[in-house]
Specification:
Blueprint: H1 2-19, H2 24-35, H3 45-50, H4 52-69, H5 72-77, H6 79-102, H7 107-117, H8 122-132, H9 137-169, H10 173-208, H11 212-232, H12 237-250, H13 263-280, H14 287-311, H15 318-328, H16 335-340, H17 346-349, H18 352-379
């Protein structure tokens, strides 16, 4: 019943938003905000836990699609893209860290939260690119930069989480060794799992053939396998699914794996995904928390925009399109925490003020982010949805 109500009400809100010229995602997220912790509290933590399998699967499908859009040959030729990424990642972390230190967060708290907010939500950007039919210089660079800064955020957050553990729990040499080995396991294990599933995927595709039906079943099976093993081994679904998608795009030279558009099946899951994302956000009315979140958002906006503007004259983008790329990188989702770290982790869960600032920033950017992406794609002339509005 919960699933039925959310699907019907969510899709109705999405269609309502579309008729107002807004992204469908905005309708889903606003409904989640109304039903979740910020609103009436009907979609509470227990209800969200029941929906977690649908959320994990929707995340995996979007990340697989994103990985299949990343052409490594093109990315290698675009050397300024890498300079943009390094500058944007470094400046975002630095300004976010400085903003949090203004409000007397500890060095570890500020460093960890700054690492998390480096990421531009890859699932939001992939969904918006698909929903808008975006294809061109701006959308290609936005998706590539979002992938790179999300991977960087995962690496930084994974390396810093043990220090957050140490600050929270203390411990001896054995605990420190465990804290060092666990991040290494998550990083290396996720990539190895992605490579293993890709090889199994490619081998199985020889037997399944290239018919759309067979390849669709094969893709769903491989996604389910990857998510299940990643969860069971405490690996990153983000890194695993991106690795599979990128290998399918760049290493399947004989094209045994057919590119699958998940279409309506994916949309059903995305309705649940973004409703739960909205319900997970939480706006805190404390003046200190609101001020810290506002400064964090402002620092993040400047850090995403400034390096891209500075490097734009050296690229085919030009200043106007560079500005649109920077604007489109603003989305930050509550599921950033889910794909980067485990929010039920005791060291993370114990940092009440840090979580409050993060979720308040998320509550703002979950609503504003899709609107900014829609604005960027449409003003770049890359959205095929313009004709429908």
């Amino acid at each position: 019943m919960l699933l039925a109500v959310l699907l019907l009400a969510g899709y109705a809100c999405g269609e309502g938003a579309k008729r107002l010229g807004l992204p469908r995602m905005t309708g889903y997220i606003v409904l989640g905000l109304v039903l979740g912790d910020t609103g009436i509290g009907w979609l509470d933590a227990g209800a969200r836990a029941l929906l977690r399998p649908f959320v994990d699967f929707a995340l995996a499908l979007l990340l697989l699609e994103l990985g299949q859009r990343l052409d490594l040959h093109w990315m290698r030729r675009e050397r300024w893209l890498w300079v943009m990424a390094v500058c944007e990642i470094g400046l975002t972390w630095l300004l976010a860290f400085s903003a949090l230190k203004v409000f007397a967060f500890t060095h570890i708290e500020a460093a960890f939260l700054a690492a998390v907010v480096v990421s531009s939500s890859p699932v939001v950007l992939m969904y918006m690119a698909r929903d808008e039919g975006a294809d061109g210089q701006v959308s290609h660079r936005v998706l590539a930069l979002a992938t790179l800064n999300s991977l960087a955020a995962f690496v930084m957050a994974t390396l810093l989480l043990p220090l957050l553990h140490y600050e929270h729990e203390g411990g001896g040499i054995v605990d420190i060794a465990r804290m060092v080995l666990h991040p290494a396991w998550r990083l290396a294990g996720s990539v190895l799992l992605g490579a293993f599933v890709f090889m199994l995927y490619r081998f199985s595709a020889r037997w399944f053939g290239k018919s759309p039906q067979a390849q669709f079943v094969l893709a769903i099976g491989m996604v389910t396998l990857a998510v299940g093993v990643a969860d069971g081994l405490d690996l990153s679904v983000l890194c695993t699914m991106l690795a599979i998608g990128m290998l399918v795009k760049n290493a399947d030279t004989k094209r045994r794996i057919r590119h699958i558009e998940f279409g309506f099946a994916s949309e059903v899951l995305c309705v649940i995904l973004f409703i739960v994302a909205g319900a997970s956000a939480h706006f805190t009315g404390s003046p200190e928390i609101v001020a810290a979140a506002a400064l964090l958002i402002a620092a993040r906006f400047v850090a995403k925009l400034l390096p891209i503007f500075a490097i734009a004259p050296l690229t085919p983008l030009g200043l106007s399109r560079a500005g649109l790329v920077g604007i489109a990188l603003m989305p930050l989702s509550g599921f950033t925490a889910l794909v980067l770290i485990d929010p039920t982790d005791q060291a993370f869960a114990s940092q009440g003020r840090m979580i409050a600032v993060f979720l308040t920033a998320v509550a703002v950017l979950e609503v504003v982010g899709p609107l900014l992406v829609q604005f960027a794609f449409r003003h770049a002339g890359e959205s095929h949805a313009v004709e429908e509005v």
